[in-house]
Amino acid sequence: MSLGSNTESYPAFAHIRLRENPGKNLNQVFMWEENSKMATVDELEQYYVLCPMSVKDSYLVETVRTFKEKNEKGSIMIFTDTCKNCQLLSMILNEVGFNNVALHAMIRQKERLAALARFKSNVARILIATDVASRGLDIPSVELVINHTIPNIPKDYIHRVGRTARAGRGGMAISLITPHDIKLLHAIEEAINTKLKKYTIQDKEVMKIFTQVSVTKREAEIKLDETDFYEKKMINKRKNRILEEKDLDEEEEEEKEKEKEKLKKRKKKVKTRWLIQSEMK
Question: Which residue windows does the record flag with biased composition (Acidic residues) (predicted)?
Answer without folding.
Answer: 246-256
